[in-house]
Structures are given as structure tokens and as C-alpha cells.
């Protein structure tokens, strides 16, 4: 099982816009096409609640609150238990599923996402769960940097934030030069 891929599904869910069923369908990759086809309106509310709880996990990890991140993941593991089974259509197509046959789309997807994030936390620690430092973004990410120094969800956000900071420094410097020096008043 590719736990990193399962963990990335958790990231994709947290960063998704779940305004409607089409927004939810956009979460599923081509490999999860059957989920995209079978997802129903009743799944939307489940995904929204899980999305909020998974965002909390990332915020806990980012702020060093490991115990809270672990407690939330444990609660989610109970809500969406992993029940592995082998599936396939012929002897050359065997693969693992994380839930029992007939599970709902939300159960299948969320069991995998929560399991992947739980394995990630155990392997790398909750400090590797990040929330983008660009105030205009808010997306979450998994920090795969060699020294746990990533601050942004993407190069785009990093560049945008650095350019904005540079422009703000330039405006401040120009503003300081534009203010005329006040003459010293005579001492009486």
C-alpha cells in the first residue's frame, strides 16, 4: 500500500472546495473514477465534516500540538476504520482496498486518507503537517523538505508572498525618505 498517496488524498480533501457535489467530484483522481461516479449528495456533508477535522490536524501539527493531532486522528480512525481487503478482477490485478466490500464512497476515501495521514504522523512527526504561510492561501501540505523548513504549500505561494514582502519593504523605505526631517526647535 502506498501510504504517501493515501496521505496526499487527505491533503487534497482539506484543500478542496466542497461547495457542491461537483466540487467533491473534483477531489477524486482518475484512478478513483468509480468514486467520482458513485459519490452522492449524502456523502457531501460527511466529507465537509471530515475536511474540517483534518484541517484541525494540520493546524495542531503546525503549532506543535502533537497530542491534539494524535487524538483527532485516533478519533477519525474510529469513525472511518481501516478494514483491508484484497480486490481485483483477475489474478494480475490484485490490489488492496482499505474498507470492506460495499462501503460508501466517503468511508472508502476517508479511511484511506486518515490511515495515510496517521502513518505519515508516526513516520515523520506532526511537525511535517503544514499550513501555508501565505495569509491569502490557507492550503495545507505535507513537508517533504530535508530539514523540515517548508512554509508554503507551493512555489507559487512562496513567490507571491516574497514579492509582496519585498514591495512592502520598498514602500516603507520610500515612505521614510519622503518624510522631511523636522528641524530642531531652539531650546528656551
Can you walk me through this structure?
The structure is a single chain. The chain has 188 residues and is mainly alpha-helical. The protein has one domain: Jann2411-like fold (Orthogonal Bundle), CATH 1.10.3300.10. The protein contains 7 helices and 4 strands, in the order αααααββαββα. The protein has helices spanning 3-15, 21-25, 33-38, 41-62, 66-79, 105-124, 155-178, and strands at 85-87, 95-97, 129-131, 140-142. The strands form 2 sheets. Strands 1-2 form a two-stranded antiparallel ribbon. α4 packs parallel to α6 (105-124). It is elongated and about 95 Å long. This is CGNR zinc finger domain-containing protein. InterPro entries: ABATE, ABATE_dom_sf, Znf_CGNR. Residues 128-170 form the Zinc finger CGNR domain.
Question: In oligomeric terms, what are we looking at?
Answer: single chain
Helix content: 55-70%
Arithmetic mean pLDDT? 88
Low-confidence stretches: none
User: Overall 3D geometry?
Assistant: elongated
Strand fraction band? 5-15%
Widest sheet: strand ordering:
1-2
CATH homologous superfamily assignment: Jann2411-like domain
CATH class: Mainly Alpha
Task: Figure out the total of helices.
Answer: 7
Category from helices, strands and their pairing: mainly alpha
Query: What is the number of E strands?
Result: 4
Number of domains: 1
Largest sheet: 2 strands, antiparallel
CATH A-level architecture: Orthogonal Bundle
CATH topology (fold) name: Jann2411-like fold
Whole-angstrom Rg: 23 Å
Topology pattern, helix = H, strand = E: HHHHHEEHEEH
Distance between the termini: 83 Å
